[in-house]
Amino acid sequence: MWERWDSIQPDGGFQTPEMNSFNHYAYGSVGEWMYANIAGIAPGRAGYRQVVIRPRPGGEVTSARATFASLHGPVSTRWQQRSGGFVLTCSVPPNTTAEVWIPADHPDRVQHTHGTFVRAEDGCAVFEVGSGSHRFTV
Question: Where does the Alpha-L-rhamnosidase C-terminal domain lie (predicted)?
Fold first, then answer.
């Protein structure tokens, strides 16, 4: 990809239309980081046949929601952290599975719909879910 770094002239006008781009990769990498770490949506396998849902609450960010348009349909997450509790709702498209990571020191603390506990790792209870809407509460 070719692009030029002087697309906007000092008077606010544009250079010739050839090779003008304002979509620099630096901006895309920030967007990817926000989807993967704040919203918690990342590919588990190529083409999003499996999705990893792992929001990472912390700092002053106490809630987030996002939707990602995968090849199989929309993947969405919505989470909120308050008073030591955590609630995540997520939606997984048809013919897709998801590995859902919930920040909890023990899987018995997690109330969930349609999830199968897989393992405890890195301070999280990890569940496997299929297509549909799911809710997890700590």
Answer: 40-116
